[in-house]
Amino acid sequence: MREMIKMVMVLTIITAVSGGILSVLKTSTEEKIESQVLKFQKAPAIGAIFDTATNDPLKERFKIPTKVKDKDIEITFFPAVLEDGSKAVAFEAKGAGFGGDVGLMVGIDLETDKIIKARVTTHSETPGIGSRVKDDATYVSQFTGMGFDATFKLKNNGGDIDALSGATVTSKGVSVAAAQVKKLYLKLKPQILNKMK
Amino acid sequence: MAQSIAKEFTKGLWTEIAPFRIVLGLCPILAVTNTVENGIGMGLATTFVLVFSNFFVSLFRNSIPAKVRIPCFIVIIATFVTIVELLMQAYTYPLFLKLGIFIPLIVVNCIVLGRAEAFASKNAPHLSIADGLGMGIGFTFSLAVLSAVREIFGTGAITFYETPIVLFGPSFEPFTFMVEAPGAFVCLGLLLCIMNLIPKK
Description:
The complex is a heterodimer. Chain A is 43% helix and 22% strand. Chain A is built from four helices and five strands, in the order αβββββααα. Chain B is mostly helical. Chain B has one domain. In chain B, 66% of the residues lie in helices and 4% in strands. Chain B has nine helices and two strands; from the N terminus they run H-H-H-H-H-H-H-H-E-E-H. Chain B has helices spanning 2-11, 18-21, 26-31, 36-59, 69-91, 93-99, 110-120, 125-155, 181-197; strands at 157-160, 163-166. The radius of gyration of chain B is 18 Å and the shape is globular. The mean pLDDT of chain B is 87. The interface between A and B is medium-sized, with 23 and 24 residues.
């Protein structure tokens, strides 16, 4: 019995201490990681989406607080003024893929409500299989020109999104992220327009 | 005492060099050795985890009950792996992107758990640090050698910080298969063969 109590005690103490250390480290590196993700993941994605931007979408980014599944979160929006004078906005949403969340950055034309371009940002999919949704830009090019009347589900689930062969779960994550983009955009559009005045 | 520290440190460098002599840790050595940069990055991350997990396992070796030692070791190892993962995300993000899924997998790297079980749980902290450091450097060295062979023959150049050092003339036709998965098996097999030809002492 004493041995039993000792085992429970030791394991509890070790896990509690390590949990404590990790949560401290997590909070203290959060800001740094966020800026790294911005620099190495979001900046190239935004550069590819708004290749004709006449302003600096990264610098002019703004946050709008909202609720997703009863959780308070802040979404970062990247506004852009394109060469032809039209206004656009880009933001990221996530969907569960094979190895974790797949982030999808989508640029939307504010006048026509159509998708300009989309790019996959952060993901932890299998290299060479799921990771192709990011590496192969032709996959996400199917979003270009889509409006929000489209159904963001995979085609075999009755939607409008093509799956990447061999990476169905990852493709599903991308489609869930796109559906989330649609939901957030339709909900937050008045606030976005208000901020961009 | 200094002698025994030196002995524990140097054994990991040659006589018990992890992947080639005791043939442990083959998953990362096959997966991430497509470029020298990845190989060394992975090796250093593993070394960090090895040194700290060895130290803490050894420090608590008398208070951890034998029946729950493996879960305790794994918790300690996993903590340091997560620390490495967070630090790499914060400071060496491009490398983190390339190594990706293989960083969390250090938790199940046989070398780390193997050293905790076979060495650190039976020896004093200072010897365990020496052992972890030696094993880690030996592992990094092995990864560097294997990835150098693969990268040189696979691409004809070695790339550091995105500046390639071209080693062969333009007529060189790279063996692209070397940087792909089958090349890893072939190279590892050849290196193991060479290591077995060289006597241990």
